[in-house]
Amino acid sequence: MNKLAQDDEVDIFEFFVTLWINKKIIGAFIIFFVFLGSILVQTRETRYESRLSYSAYTLPPSITDMDQKAAFNKLSEDFKGIFFSESFFDNWKQSQKLTKLTFNEINRIEVLDGYTVSKNIQNRLIRFIEEENSYISIGSNNIQTLTEIFNYANYVNKFLSMKYLSRAKKDKKLIEKQSIETQQLDQDGTKELLKIVRYIDQVENNYYVMALDHPSKPKKTSMSTVFVLIISSLLGFVIGFIYVIIRNAIFKYKNLMSKDNK
C-alpha cells in the first residue's frame, strides 16, 4: 500500500513538473485560442430578443364549445394566418405612412435561387412561441421596430375580432329568423343567442379576441464577450495540455526504445 501511495505521489509530482516545464507551450495554445475567440466576438452578430405576450381574451361563440387549448390554438392559427399575409400587411402599411417595417422582415419564408424556402429560425425577426405563456419572439432591440410590430399585431387582432363579429351577427340573424318562422326558441337556442349577443357587445366595446402585452425590454441572447474568452482560454489550456502529455509520452517512448537498442 505504501508503495502504491508513493507511486501516486510521484505521478502527481511528475504531472505538475511536466506542466511547469511546458508552461510556455500551454500558454501559447491559450493565447492562440483567446485570439480566435476575440475574432469570433468581433465578427459575430449581436442578437437580442423582446417578447410580446399574447393570450385568448374574448372567445367567439363558434369556438366556445372547444376545450381551452383547442380554442386557443384555433385563435392562434387564425391570427398567424392574417399576420403573415402579405396583402394584409401591405394594406396596414398604407395606413402607416412613417413605418419602416417591411413584409420581408417579418416573413417566415424567403426566395433563394428562385426557390421558396423557410427562413432559418435564427434569421427570423418574428417567431410565435406557443407554450403555457405564449409570446411573439422579436429578434430586435430597435424600439421603433418593436413599436411597429406591436401596432401591426393590434391591427391584426382588431381585424380578426371584426371577422368573428361579422360571423356572430350572421348567426344571430339566422337564429332570430328561425325563431320567427317556428314561433318558438328552445332552451339551447336561447343560450346560443345570449352567448352571441354578449360576444357582439364585448367586441363592439373593444374587447378583442386576443390580449396583447407591450413588447418587453430587449435582452441580449448571444453569448457575452467575457464568456466567449473564458471558454476560449479553457479550450486552449485543455488542447495545450493534451499536446504536452502526448509529446511527453512520445519522448519517453523514444528514450525507452533507444535504451533497449543499446
Structure explained in plain terms:
With 262 residues, the protein is an alpha+beta fold. The protein folds into 2 domains: 2-44 and 224-261, no CATH class; 48-160 and 210-220. The protein is 63% helix and 11% strand. It is built from 8 helices and 7 strands. It has helices spanning 2-21, 23-43, 68-83, 86-94, 103-106, 143-182, 187-204, 225-261; strands at residues 48-56, 109-112, 115-118, 126-129, 135-138, 210-212, 219-220. α2 (23-43) runs antiparallel to α8, α3 (68-83) crosses α6 (143-182) and α6 runs antiparallel to α7 (187-204). The longest helix has 40 residues, at 143-182. The model is unreliable at 3-7 (pLDDT under 50).
**What helical percentage do the residues reach?**
55-70%
Radius of gyration, CA atoms, in whole angstroms: 33 Å
N-C termini distance? 34 Å
Q: Major sheet, described briefly?
A: 5 strands, antiparallel
Which range does the strand content fall in? Answer: 5-15%
- Count of distinct strands: 7
pLDDT average, as an integer? 83
Overall geometric form: elongated
List low-pLDDT spans: 3-7
Order of helices and strands: HHEHHHEEEEHHEEH
Q: Strand pairing plus helix content: what structural class?
A: alpha+beta
Number of helices, counting only DSSP H or I runs of 4 residues or more: 8
Assembly type of the shown chains? Answer: single chain
How many domains make up the 3D coordinates? 2
